[in-house]
Amino acid sequence: MLLLATIDILGRRLEEGEIFNKNNRGILMADEIFENPRLAYIYDPFDPDRSDLDAYESIVNEFGANSVLDIGCGTGTFACRLAAKGIEVIGLDPAKASLKVAKSKQWSDRVTWIHGTALDLPSLKVDLVTMTANVAQVFLTDEEWNDTLLAIKRVLRPGGILAFETRKPEAQAWLNWNKTNTYKRVDIPKCGIVTGWVDVYDVRDSLVSFRWTYTFENDGATIMSDSKLRFRNLKEITQSLKEVGLSVEDVREAPDRLGREYVFIAHRPD
Prior knowledge:
It contains 8 helices and 14 strands. It is α/β, with parallel strands linked by helices and 270 residues long. It folds into 2 domains: 3-20 and 28-169 and 231-267, Rossmann fold, CATH 3.40.50.150; 170-230. It is globular and about 55 Å long.
């Protein structure tokens, strides 16, 4: 039976490709880069190389997962990629503009899209949960991170897998987050030429704050988006998983960022 067919929301089935919006935990927060429609539209053209997802697809295959929840799915690249292979996929994200982009992609009609956070998830069970890119680092407080891990544990089947990556704080990746290293000028269909870059403006303990700046040459508009990430170390992450009852199975290197990131593989005990 398809996973989609087992989900019942407010007394009715959720159709394939439909966006479910449930906000019973307060206001959904998403950075401007994901929530602003103009920025969501240009997100993929500014980051076209998603070879980082190869490792996650390998993990799906390694554990034989038939159903996957992608938390922080953004514009849906990974979710649609899995759906094309016949995997049952749920894409979850708090940014409605990003989900709109996701729904425009091929294979998006085979994905269940949920507008919200892990705390908003309906009753469901999956084989594997992923948090790709920087998703695991957007949870700034210990409480947010703990609550998210508990929500993930709740939706994992016994023996289910959680796979996510996080940047190693000792690698200090943020030292290269400046206009000199990140400036791009991209010609985007239906949009024209857009320039963009990122600058770090504050580093405090394990929190790094940075600002994306985009200028649209067709109308001269400049849009900025502020973001903040938490850089947890290996011990902190391992302990946090243990505290919610998730067992660390492996800690790997990210193939596309050797020496710079951890890839955690944890599972819910039977």
